[in-house]
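INTERNAL AUDIT FORM
Audit reference: QA-55
Scope: verify that the stored structure record matches its stored sequence.
Auditor: D.O.
Record contents follow.
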Amino acid sequence: ISGVSSDMRDIETEAASGHKRAQLALDVFTYRLKKYIGAYAAAMGGLDTIVFTGGIGENSATVRSKTCQNLEFLGVKIDEQKNKETVKQEAVISAEDSRVKVLVVPTNEELVIALDTAEIVEKTKQGEEAEPVGTS
């Protein structure tokens, strides 16, 4: 969509400088996140916590802010200053009066992949059939 890159850092930079397609890509991305949050909130009967993690979730205050906009009806309210100050560190970025906690939690994606791979190799050595790793 952006016509720039698939890297969110590049998309954010270009969107901030007025690139319309990059802005569209950013808007579509955060809209989809918001849509999933709303869908899961309905399926679960509400929310206690929203966790931003992974490369974009850990590093993009813009994505976190745009995603949480208009979720106040669910009790989501972030502290924009805490949000801007949080990069690659664990933090609570929800406002004091937010009914839903909003967290940033760094991950070590490479370690998770290595551990999953080691488990599959070990099961294969023992003659067990490895179960596929599921995602939602």
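Auditor finding: record pair retrieved intact. Residues 8-125 form a domain with the Nucleotidyltransferase; domain 5 fold (CATH 3.30.420.40).
Action required: none
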